[in-house]
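Retro notes, item 3 of 5
We never archived the inputs for the adenosine-5'-diphosphate complex last cycle. Fixing that now. Sequence and ligand:
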Amino acid sequence: MPNLLILGAGGFGHMVYESAVATRQFDKIAMLDDACKDSNVIGKLVDYKDFRKEYPCAVAAFGNNKMRLQWVKNLLEADFVVPTIIHPSAVVSPSAEIGAGSFVMQRAVINTKTKLGEACLVNSGAIVDHDTVVEEGVHIGLGSVVKANCHVEAFRKVEAGEVIFAKRRKIDGVDSWMLEDALYAFGFGNQCSYVRPFGAGHINETYAVFMPTENGEDELSYVLQRVNRNVFKNPREVMENIFGVTEYLRQSIRANGGDPDRETLSYIKTKSGETYFEDTEGQPWRCYNYIPDSICYQSVEKPEQFYQSGRSFGRFLKQLDGYPADTLFETIPKFHDTEDRFKTFQRALRQDVKNRAKTCKAEIEFVQNHKADCSVLMEQVRQGALPLRVTHNDTKLNNILFDEHTGEGICIIDLDTIMPGLSLNDFGDSIRFGASTAAEDEQDLSKVHFDIALFEAYTKGYLESAGDVLTPAEKENLVWGAKILTLECGMRFLTDYLQGDTYFKTQYPTHNLVRARTQFRLAEEMEQQFEQMKAIVKKYS
Ligand code: ADP
Ligand code: GN1
Ligand code: MG
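Structure as it came back at the time:
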C-alpha cells in the first residue's frame, strides 16, 4: 500500500486524515502544514516535492475552495498520484465519476451518473442526487442536498443544510416556452443536446430531438410534435387511437418475426404517464422514438420506391384487418366524405370571406363540373357495397419511412387520422400525391402530369400485399379512389384558399390555389387514362 501525504493539518485536514485511515488504502499517512505542529506533521507546504518519493500519493485538505484546487494542480504537476478520499460510510454510485483530490466524507451520498470535478469536498451527510454535474473546487456543505440534474458551478460553497434545485438549461433550437416545457414533460430537458424543426407536413409542428450518446456524439433520438389543435379538436382521442393501433401492430409484427421497434412507431408517455402533454396555451404535444437509418421522401425518385410504398400501405391495411374498428374515435368527422367536402366548398364560395373567388374562376368551375363524382363512392357505401375498414386516411409518400440501406418501406407514420374508412381512400390518396411528375405545389402546370407507370408500380405493390383481403368491389373501384381523392384534395385546397388559409400550412398567399391546380390537372389526366388504369388494376388483381 502506498503512503499518503496530506497538505493542510487544520481541523479539516484531520478529518481527511481519519477518513484516509478508515479507507485502509494507505500505509503511512503524514501531513504538511506551515503552522500546525502536530506529531503527524513532517514539514512545511513548500517542501512538498521533497516528499514525493516516500509519499507518492498526496491530497490537499484545505477548506478554501480555490486554494484546494490550486494545490491539487500543483501536486499533479509534480507527478504525485492525487487520489479521491471516500470515507467507507459514504455511499457512492458505481456510475458516479469523482475527480482527483476530491473528498467524500462520512455518510455522504453520491447518486447515479453524477459527476464531480477535481478538488471537491462533499461534506458529512450531504446528498448529491443523480445526473448532477458538480464542477471543480466545489464545497457541498454538511447535510446539504443537491437535487437531481443540477449543475453546480466551480468553487461554489453550498451551505450546511442548504437544498439546491435544478435550473432549466438553455437548449439550442428551443425558441418557445411551450417547446421547452414539452421537452421537460417528456423527460429530455436535462440531457437534450439540441432540437431542430423537422419534416414537411402540412398540419403539425414537428421537431427532431438530438441526445448525446456514450461516444460523445449527438444523435437524432426522438420526434416531438405539437399537434394542430385547430385540426384535431380532441387530442386525447387522437392519442388513444394511436396508442391502441401501435400497440396492436407491435404485437402482430413481433408474432410474425418482424422488428416492432422499426416497423411501427413507439410513442412515449410523459413523465406523469399521459399520452400527450398540454402546454400553457392548451396545445397538445406528443413524442415518439426516431427510427434510425430511415429516410422520408417528398417525391418519388424511382418507381421502386413507389412500389415499396404500395406494399407498405397494403400491408398496413392487412395488419389492421383484425383491429376492432368500433373502438376507434373519429378524429376528424367526415374526413373523406367527399359529398360533405363539396358542400363545405360551396359554403366557402358563397361566403368568399377573402374576396378571392374572382381569382380562381376556372378552378371553381372544375369543381362544380365534378359534383357527380363526389357521390360515386359515398353512394356505394350507403348501399353497403364497400366495406368500412381500419384505414390510415392520409397515405402521402412522406407519411412512410424507408430503410436507408435497403430502400424497403419500413414504417407508416402520421397516424392521426386512423379511423374506419375505405381502402380506396388510402389507395387514392397515395396515387394523387406520388403518381405525379411534379410536387404537390408546383407552380408550372406544364410540369404536372399523372404518371401511369408510377400508378402501375404502386398498384402492383398494393395488390401484392392486400389483394387477398380486398373484395372484388373494392378492386373494381380502386381507380375511382385515385380520381376522387385527387379531386377531393384539390377541393380541400381550394376551399382553404377561399376561407383564407386557416387549415393547411402555407408559405405564400396563393399556395393553396397552386396546390388545388396541380390536383385538378392530375384528376383531369386520370380521367383521360381511366381505361388504362382499370386495365392495370385488372392485371395485378
Ligand atoms: P403532419 O401531420 O404535419 O404531416 P407528420 O407526422 O407526418 O405530421 O410529420 C411531419 C413530417 O415530419 C413527415 O412528413 C416527415 O417528413 C417528418 N417525419 C416525421 N417523423 C419522422 C421520422 N421518424 N423520420 C423521418 N421523418 C419524419
Ligand atoms: C395533410 O398532415 P399531412 O401533411 O401528412 C392532410 C391530408 C392531405 C395532405 C395534402 C390531417 O397531410 O389530408 O391530403 O395534407 N392531413 C390532414 O398534402 O388534414
Ligand atoms: Mg404527414
